[in-house]
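This protein record is not my work; I was only asked to verify it. Would you go through it and say whether the fold makes sense for this chain? Here is the record exactly as it was handed to me.
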Amino acid sequence: MLDWFQSTGAHRLAIHFDLDVLDPSLFRALLFAQPGIPADAFADIAQGRLTMAQIVRLLDDVATVADVVGLGITEHLPWDAVALKTMLAKLPLLGSQKNSAE
């Protein structure tokens, strides 16, 4: 890959980092790690297998041959944060106040 990039004559690179390339058993804030869905819900869809260490190594390697000028990170689905927000919204003092006439 590095040889290919260098052969293009380009010197600057914007990277699109889709978190779905990560192994969902190692990083849970992904579509494939959505809680409460059947285990085979995404059986026919390719899923990531990379570790964070592999991604860091890959991007470090790329940075040795390119001036990285942009890094977009997509597909972050923080299921635990969404669940916590939903729960907190229902708690006394933290959530919406119920009408006292109810």
About this structure: The chain has a mean pLDDT of 92.
